[in-house]
Amino acid sequence: MIRILGVVGSPRVGGNTELLVSEALKAAEEEGAETELLRLADKEINPCDACLSCRKTKECRIEDDFQMVFQKMVEADGIILASPVYFSSATPKIKALIDRAGYVSIAKGRVFENKVGGAMAVARRAGQNFTFAELLFFFLHQGMIVPGSTYWNIAFGREKGEVSKDEEGMRTARNFGKKMVWLIRKIKSPE
Asked: Which residue of 7, 97, 112, 163 shows the fewest CB atoms closer than 10 Å?
């Protein structure tokens, strides 16, 4: 079974970022994957304080919802990290997640190595390229494999639901979800 986790970094439940990730996950399900959408909106993910205790204990000493989210990331074959643009950047919660996940992953022996992952970003008007790259760099740093799509995994919308009107963005999300499943199958069952 192929498992794909979609992590939505938006504080808006049911917002545009969630809609975009849901579209990718729906396409992945159509290809036979088991999917889960995880919202950070209702989770407490505090920022990394650079204590580096994870190097010794192999765990993050900050007690919040990070441990549960990290475990789901470890168990997934594919990970999507998505964020709306916040002043040309990813949201603080998803940034806190990737900072801490990166450190703990390294401490545990690079647990995300050779998993499949990709970023998604939603913008009202601009900032999507930097936000997309910011999330994408996590996957590259962790030795993960990033599939392409028909364009960058970005879409546009401000008010809830507006992203659905971005036909190219939604189509790109669907293609990305399908490409993730295709690539995971290739990795799990090489010919």
From this structure: 112
